[in-house]
Amino acid sequence: MLDARKGEALLAVxxxxxxxxxxxxxxxxxxxxxxxxxxxxxxxxxxxxxxxxPCRATAAGQRLVQYLRRARLLEDEFIADSGxxxxxxxxxxxxxxxxxxxxxxxxxxADFLIREYxxxxxxxDDQDHTYTLLAQGLALAGVSSHAEPLxxxxxxxxxxxxxxxxxSPAFARTWFPDGLQREAARVAPLMVFDRKxxxxxxxxxxxxxxxxxxxxCHYMPASDAFANAVRLGLGYGMIPEQxxxxxxxxxxxxxxxxxxxxxxxxxxxxxxxxxxKLERLSAQxxxxxxxxxxx
Length: 295
Description:
The protein is an alpha/beta fold and about 300 residues long. The protein is about 45% helix and about 20% strand.
């Protein structure tokens, strides 16, 4: 049987990134934390942590972290639902992409989270990379563009988030007076979320033959700020339909490629064996997504 204190030490190191920070969290010395993790590694006969900066879990460590998080969730849920601890909230770590967080997931979950007294520990990343957070055991469930399930997990299709290449009317008149043209796109400022974001670069390569690095870019790693920057005329970029709402119909934004939307299929990843509350949370996420995303 795994020692709970050693497992707690392992999680603290992975979550904080160092033995020193883990010691602060656990009110121990760094040496004591290191001893607990080393003892667990000796007992299991395998390394669990890559002692780098920050510390990272090995492949075996990632599998163990996944198990420990699920075990902690089950324990916390049992305690929270017991009579004398009914007021204790349950915290759930979810991995989602920024556009999902900025649009449909919170409105779709708010009433459920309030009713069930669940706290969210949101981990943000690009939809192509949230899968890694799940694989590393940092999140218990999440939204991803990957359809392949992790071992022990199941995947449910959420639907399509449709993006359109938008600009303010003034920006379109200045930079694309003759429409979206290759030479104009070489000099027009492009909005990019961050350096993991390939929505815009994939589109420009596919439609105009422009490789990454051949046009000027703003980097704006916040969904609301990104959309606002497009509305202010700083650049043009991909915005999901759920975010721009009626702005195109009302003339506040211009669709530069009306016949060429970019569709991103999203999937919900969760463990096959879940706690009751996480099962209900998964059902709520799937229902909320299917109510607003393209099917």
